[in-house]
Amino acid sequence: MKLILLGAPGAGKGTQAEILCDRLHIPTISTGNILRAAVKNGTPTGLKAKAFMDAGKLVPDEVIIGIISERLQEDDCKNGYILDGVPRTLAQAEAIEKAGITFDAVVSIEISDETIMERMGGRRVCESCGASYHVVAVPPKQEGVCDRCGGKLVQRKDDAPETVKSRLDVYHQETEPLKVFYAKRNLLKTVENQSTVEATTAAILKVLEA
Ligand code: AMP
């Protein structure tokens, strides 16, 4: 299964991707997580990406295309993968298509900007493995500690309200057109965000079976 998860920042792509990768036994590839690790480790890519990320802007397409083409060639991608947060622009989608990479489905998680603004304040991520939590909706077993790896849970710098607003603008302008791109290829499936994580997972699995 080769899957793309689309949706605004905070729609729950990361959370759903983690659940789906356990269920479907395929890796999740999150460019956001790859970039955050690069920033943390001070790599050349991280140094290039940091200012864009802190401002809630998109990292240049050529950086993302480089990251993704390398990552998809790794062994664990042989049986499929879930792309979380990529592609995010038409140029990225076109580059992926040009590289001969095909998909079984593109699932767009639909959610209002208002709900996202309410939600982002409670989001926490593991600074070691990137797993995401929410203080109310998806709390860790122990406050501030990642269930998966024991890493420290932190609030993302780009989850500040002003930055979330500009990330939403970027989403509507740059990423939303991808729905039309993939609908034209008969790959687009839309799922309404549900009131619980489990219900959204069930809705995604249902459209994938259809
Ligand atoms: P995310 O964790 O997916 O919300 O990504 C966090 C930040 O990383 C974004 O706001 C962008 O600055 C950058 N980023 C992640 N994925 C991409 C992408 N596919 N294209 C451009 N920038 C990206």
Radius of gyration: 16 Å
Strand-residue proportion: 15-25%
**Helical run tally:** 9
Structure ligands: adenosine monophosphate
Unreliable spans are none
Global shape:
globular
Strand order of the largest sheet: 2-3-1-4-8
Q: What is the helical fraction, as a range of percent?
A: 40-55%
Distance between the termini: 14 Å
Structural class: alpha/beta
Q: Sheet with the most strands?
A: 5 strands, parallel
Q: What order do the helices and strands follow?
A: EHEHHHEHEHEEEHHEH
Average pLDDT figure: 94
Per DSSP E runs of 2 or more residues, the count of β-strands stands at 8
What's the topology here?
Elements: E1 2-7, H1 13-24, E2 28-30, H2 31-41, H3 44-54, H4 61-72, E3 81-84, H5 90-98, E4 105-110, H6 113-120, E5 123-126, E6 132-134, E7 153-154, H7 161-175, H8 177-183, E8 188-192, H9 197-209
Parallel strand pairs: 1-3, 1-4, 2-3, 4-8
Antiparallel strand pairs: 5-6, 5-7
Helix pairs in contact: 2-3, 4-5
Adenosine monophosphate (AMP) binds at residues 9, 31-32, 35, 52-53, 56-59, 64, 85-86, 88, 92, 158, 167.
